Amino acid sequence: MSFNIAIDGPAGAGKSTIARKAAEMLGFIYVDTGAMYRAIAYYLLKEGIDPDNTEAIAAACTGADIEIRYEDGEQIVLLNGENVNSYIRTEEVSIMASRSSAVPEVRQHLLELQRSLARTHDTVMDGRDIGTTVLPDASLKIYLTASDEVRADRRYAELKEKGEQVSYEDVLKDIRERDERDMNRSVSPLRRADDAHLIDSSYMTPEEVLLEIMSLISSTGTE
User: Fold this and answer.
1) Contact status, residue 103 vs residue 54, Cβ threshold 8 Å
2) Residues 122-147: what's their mean pLDDT?
3) How many domains does the chain have?
4) pLDDT of residue 110
5) How far is CA 13 from the centre of its chain?
6) How many CB atoms are located within 10 Å of the residue 107 CB?
7) d(CA 191, CA 140)
8) In this predicted model, which residue has the larger pLDDT, 185 or 93?
9) Which among 47, 45, 55, 129 is positioned nearest to 94, based on CA atoms?
10) Torsion-angle region of residue 30: left (phi > 0), alpha (psi -120 to 50) or beta?
């Protein structure tokens, strides 16, 4: 039987970094559900879909075939057979992903692929509703968060490093608006599962977060 770790939390909490490192340490498969939603968002943008047109998003999303593969230890996200790793981390894609992920048809389109991976492999999966919707029976659930200011600091530094011209104030505003959308959407809103362990990473290093997760894994009796 596979061992699945679900890591949920708001944007900028460090979920992807922690999930990827934890999977590497454990020899598990890392399933970046955020990248899958970003790939669909990128597809919708290429198709010229308005982020506020939920009907158009629902109709178009099934045209996006998303796969995750590993090549030389690197996770590759394929959109209709094309490697889109280098295209899905822009702020424009982030905003579209936040809006399109609230559309039920988009979530259903990816749900079965995510569950199929979890049934057949030991996985670490991160997102907004992994412990509550995608993998409600996950072996270990973690809700990873941080203050909105800390998360905006991290996102701002990441975007500046990529050469994008953004202001901290705009990034903070976007973080807060994304939290509002994610926590109040009608389908699978962002929330902490009742049996999820809370980790606030505001004043923790990634190494300290990983140590806490490894301790939680040990307490389940599986390493």
Assistant:
1) yes
2) 94
3) 1
4) 86
5) 10
6) 22
7) 16
8) 93
9) 45
10) beta
Angle at 214 between CA 213 and CA 215, to 5 degrees: 90
Is residue 223 assigned to a domain? Answer: no
Give me the residue label for tokens 């929330």. 191
- For the chain, what is the largest distance between any 2 Cα atoms, rounded to a whole number of angstroms? 49
Return d(Cα 19, Cα 6) in angstroms, integer.
Answer: 9
Stretch 29-52: mean pLDDT: 92
pTM: 0.76
Q: What is the DSSP letter of 134?
A: I
Measured CA distances, 137 to 4, 5, 31, 210 (Å) = 9, 10, 16, 22
CA 191 to chain CA mean position, Å? 14
Nearest of 177, 49, 178 to residue 105 by alpha carbon: 49
> By CB neighbour count within 10 A (0-12 exposed, 13-18 middle, 19+ buried), where does 221 fall?
exposed
CATH number for the domain spanning 59: value is 3.40.50.300
Q: How confident is the model at residue 68 (pLDDT cuts 50, 70, 90)?
A: confident
140-145 and 4-8 strand pairing:
parallel
Q: How far apart are the first and last CA of the chain?
A: 14
Q: Is the pLDDT of residue 222 over 70?
A: no
Residue with tokens 């047109």: 53
Q: Which one-letter amino acid corresponds to residue 70?
A: Y
Domain that holds residue 126: 4-218
